[in-house]
Each structure stands twice: as structure tokens, then as C-alpha cells.
Design a protein that fits this description.
single chain; Isopropylmalate Dehydrogenase; alpha/beta; about 350 residues; 10-stranded mixed beta sheet; binds 1,4-dihydronicotinamide adenine dinucleotide; 12 strands; 11 helices; about 45% helix
Amino acid sequence: MRNITLMPGDGIGPEITEAMVKTVEATGVKINWERFEAGADVLEKYGTPLPDHVLDSIKKNKVAIKGPLTTPIGTGFRSVNVTLRRELDLYACLRPAKTIKGVKTRFENIDLIIVRENTEDLYAGIERQIDADTAESIKRNTRGASERIVKFAFEYAVKENRKKVTAVTKANICKLSDGLFLEAARKVAENYPQIQYEECLVDNMCMQLVQNPEFYDVLVLPNMYGDIVSDLAAGLIGGLGVAPGANYGHDLVLFEPVHGSAPSLKGKNIANPTALILSAVMMLNHIGETKAADKLYNAVIKVIEKGETVTPDLGGVNSTMEMADAIVEEIKKMSSGFNLFEKAKLELYEN
Ligand code: NAI
């Protein structure tokens, strides 16, 4: 039995987590979920939105999955998501944006990988109020962090047989900080002659992505551009409800959807569970449960393709749990098909 840290999060988090756990368990994989709360809900009890026992559990288990966590806007505590990434040095955020058959979009055949630097840039949290009417934030990029994120993108490209890596910056304006990122990207790219390397400014990239998304393959970006372009890429494939992700550190991985806590959907049981379930597919692949991952992925795709039991963001009328139940039914069908096939094979050997 594999121990995995699970943070349901807040907002729609608990609803989609219930759906994810149900569908993962339907594949037959045995997981002992170590569940923890974080965020505003535990602030009063522990004096921090991210108690040490949560970090300890992730460090011990090496694999975690979480729902979204709300960050107060403008004031209040620092984002738990950003703190998690920094505390655990989860430096690489990997967000695939792949067309899902059955999801209505303007484009077909999108297959993008967004690799976002996760630990620095404007998210380093270096801000100060200079006077009542002036505030500033420092954008900090370091050579070490820039080189390791670009290396991650190229290594991913090699492993997954990808053809091209595009470094996305605003180095014409942020000449030093993004200039340094670009310098690092060029240096790392030299070690991967088999992968095409390109550069694009982030504003142009946004236009290119809404016009010709099929021209792009792996994109590597500093933190803030990565955050923004991830949502854009999610929009290309049908919205945040279907966009999964993962945050990689040296030996830890935290899986989570791209989307946030969607406060307006909270408690309505209509949030799309797909993004979190597809994040779980990535997690199952990571822990070597590839058969379970394939089953779960195919079941999700089947349910979306049929379009009979999907949530409102996908044009349906169903609830989060009804969609999860439909996915479970597909897994059961696949499992019984698999068993019949296995039985036939056994009988063949016996005869
Ligand atoms: P959001 O991602 O929560 O919502 C943006 C839009 O997408 C909304 O219209 C929402 O209804 C829709 N949406 C999101 N997830 C959906 C789903 N599963 N099914 C159907 N529709 C879905 O972004 P927003 O509103 O900017 O942020 C809300 C809160 O979430 C903020 O406190 C923010 O800081 C936090 N957040 C947390 C993240 C995390 O935990 N990793 C990531 C992004 C935002």
C-alpha cells in the first residue's frame, strides 16, 4: 500500500477531491491517503495556514496531491501554494494542455507542455511600500534556478520524444532579469542539439497561441509568464476544468490542477473534477501504476466524448459526483473486459 499525502484544499477542493479519490480507487490501486487541511481553515487552530505536519508528510511520502487553496487578495497571509513550492523547492511546474475529444473548443490537435519556473521571479514575495502612494515588487531571477528549469524542460522533451522547446520571456524590456533567464536557456539548449530551440516574447506568444497553437510544443517560462500562459493554454483546450498539473522538486512531486478554488461554484457540486482526476493520472504514472493510469485516463475521455454525464462547464447538466460515477462505470466496464480477455488467454494456455 502506497502512502500519498492528500490536501483537499478549500472552495471546490473538497468536492472534486471526493470525486478524484472515488475514481482512483475504482482502478483497484491501493493507496493510503494521508489527509491534511491547510489554508484559511486551519489558520486559527495552528497559527499558520501551512502547518509543519503537512510539510513533514509530503517530505516523508515524496508524493502528494492537492485541491486548490484560496489566497486572500491584496492583504492577509502569503499564498500557501507559493509557500509549498518554495518550502519544498518544487521548482518545476509541468502543465500539459492537450485536446480532449468531445470538449468543444476552437482548436483541434493541441498538444502543448507548459514548464513554469516555480520558485522565484515576482513570486519571491520581495515587495515594499515606499510611501502611501508607491509600492514596488522585485522581480528576481537567478542563473541557477533559470538553468535548472530550462534543463528540466529539455530533459522532459527528450524523455517524451518532443521536438521543440520555446523559451518565453520579456527580455526586450526586463533586460537584466529576463535577459539572464534567456542567457541560461541558450546555454542549456546547446547541450540538446537534437531538440529545436526557439525564443519568443511573451506578448507575441499569447497572440501566437490563440492563432496557431499547433506550432508549439514545450514552452519554458519564468514564474509569472508561466502562470498566465498556463491559463491561456487551459482556455485553448476547453477551460480550467480540464487542465491538470504537477510541481516537481528534486525528489518530491505535488500534483494539482491548474485552476483555483472557484469560490462561486463552492458547495454547488457542479465543479468539473476532470483537472484533478487527470492530475491523479499523472500521479499514477509517476508512481509506476501505469495500468491504473491508463484505465482512469481512458474512462475520463470516454465519459467526456459521450457527453451524456458531464458538468455544466462542458455543456452538461450533471453534478461533480454524477460525472465521477460515470467515470467509475467506465472503469468497471474496462476492468470486466480486461478480465474476460485475461480469462480467455488463461483458457488458451490450459487447453
Ligand atoms: P479559478 O481558477 O478558481 O476560477 C477561474 C474561473 O474558472 C472561474 O470562472 C471558475 O468558476 C472556473 N473554474 C475553475 N475551476 C473550475 C472547475 N473545476 N470546473 C468548472 N469551472 C472551473 O481562479 P480565480 O477565481 O482567479 O481564483 C480563486 C481563488 O483560487 C483565489 O484565491 C486564487 O488565489 C486561488 N487559486 C489557487 C490555485 C491553487 O490552489 N493552485 C491556483 C489558482 C488560483
